[in-house]
Amino acid sequence: MATHMLKTPEVDLAYDVHGPLPTADGRPPLFMIGQPMDASGFRGLASRFPDRTVITYDPRGLGRSTRKDGRVDHAPQIQAADVHAVIEALGVGPVEMFASSGGAVTALALVAAYPEDVTTLVAHEPPLIPVLPDAKAAERARAGFRDVYQEKGWGAGMAAFIVMTSWQGEFTDDYFAQPAPDPAAFGMPAEDDGTRDDPLLSDRSWAVSSYQPDVDVLTAAPTRIVIAVGEESEDTFTGRTSVATAKLLGQQATVFPSHHGGFLDGEFGGYSGQPDAFARKLREVLDEVG
Predict the structure, then answer these.
(1) Torsion (CA) 102, 106, 107, 110 in degrees, nearest 10
(2) Cβ contact 86:55 at 8 Å
(3) 8 A C-beta contact, residue 184 and residue 53
């Protein structure tokens, strides 16, 4: 693996190249992106593609990528421009892409703005509130865990986030009638460390979950777009957003093993998925002829 730093006036972007460039097999590099997860979350998945040249990166302001633009928010269009800059820096043409969660939103913005950058995009569980029939209620639920985080700190906020993202079906009155969850019930610390800058729990990433995909632009792009959903996600928030996004693009969501973090291999403690099965499914989807 070789680590590079792409320096621009606004940001220093760290990215890693696993394998040779140009690629040994003649296929495009496989670019893996997340948000707010950085490159460290793809170690397990990248290791399951030893025959491919894999690219990972840290989004602007996260991990090793230092922003110099004076902003703290995370906007898909800005992150898409960053990914485009990395692809240009690679100098080997378009890439294949696996994008997870907020990274899937960035990837959709990338295809909309730079349609020649990506040959095949597998967008896994993009958390897009505007595509939901209960979008207003979902926005209220999002504000709810943000408010808990602002009032009580990271542990309480993360517990509220887990409750929101694991809720089955639309956000009804029953959802909002629940008391704030006990952090200890989710193995989270009850004490408040005083920070309020978490990109997942604050409103700094609201532009990600509020992103409205441009269906006409995306369907007209030469990129083959596959919307993926975890088999365990069912009627959870990101499961529903995935199915709805796929429907907007005139397709059915492609079912992958496990849950929202199905490709994780113990990088984040107990939140492991089924990385071997996930990698096999990803390889199968990438190898299909669009």
Answers:
(1) 180
(2) yes
(3) no
Tokens of 186: 């989710």
At 171, the pLDDT band (50, 70, 90 cuts) reads very high
d(CA 67, CA 61): 5
- The pLDDT tens digits of the residues spanning 218-259 come to 999 999 999 999 999 999 999 999 999 999 999 999 999 999
Please tell me what DSSP assigns to residue 58: P
CA distance 38 to 13: 11
In sign, the C-alpha dihedral spanning 249, 253, 256, 257 is: positive
Burial of 191 (0-12, 13-18, 19+ CB in 10 A): exposed
Residue with tokens 């952090």: 183
Q: What are phi and psi of 281, to 5 degrees?
A: -65, -40
Beta bridge partners of 228: 124, 254
